[in-house]
């Protein structure tokens, strides 16, 4: 039986930085392999984040690449953390395997920029809204895993009140706040919760109204995660999975898209007024239904 290779966002970022430094230094994988006494395949696996890098190996490679002292300190810290188990591992299969790299990235991020066409971002969801979402997505979350999946989502939200807190900037299509998820009551509570979070200094919500017309992200949602010392990453989800993009050109492209969308969106104050108006309509629907 083939042994399963486990990689983490830290391993991938370490590997990406090693590749970047090697290429900038004009060195080949063969040069690196001969220096530390391994095969070219091992160097390739290190740079893909699927092979552990030992402390002495990292030091020798960074010497070969003539990396600055600060870079050496940063990458050594990354190497030490690369094999740590994430807090989310305790939830087991309640977190789909394809989603774990995103949670790993989110845990280390200092800023997350969301563009969402259908869903309230997980960091801003109420418990009942999250439950309704998981129940609707039976192809992703088995019914017997819903409670644990919701618990994991709520634990992720602790980042919003950490010290320092995670900064979240969410651009939501108007459809996100108008689609009734769960019930009118559940949705109204979700919108009121989002308004409360929007008052935090580290949370900003903007609505992209239908009146904005065609825009650059009509084909799908995405998230950009920024880090204090590491390069940014982009997460793109689809109905049965997701992928992480870490190449410079991808980061630049999605960052430009985000900037275009925030220019099209309502201001945070205008967005809050729209969210409040929709919440009020839903609350009235609930009263009328009694």
Task: Kindly list the characteristics that best describe this protein.
single chain; 290 residues; alpha/beta; 434 Repressor (Amino-terminal Domain); Endonuclease, Chain A; six-stranded mixed sheet; 12% strand; elongated; disordered N terminus; Cro/C1-type_HTH; Lambda_DNA-bd_dom_sf; Transcriptional regulator
Structure report:
The protein is α/β, with parallel strands linked by helices. The protein has two domains: 73 residues, lambda repressor-like DNA-binding domains (434 Repressor (Amino-terminal Domain)), CATH 1.10.260.40; 194 residues, 2-Layer Sandwich (Endonuclease, Chain A), CATH 3.30.870. Helix content is 49%, strand content 12%. The chain is built from twelve helices and six strands. Strands 3-2-1-4-5-6 form a six-stranded mixed sheet, sandwiched between helices. A hairpin with a 6-residue loop joins strand 4 and strand 5. It is elongated, with a radius of gyration of 22 Å. It starts with 8 loop residues before the first helix and ends with a helix. GO terms for molecular function: DNA binding. This is Transcriptional regulator. It holds the Pfam family DUF5753.
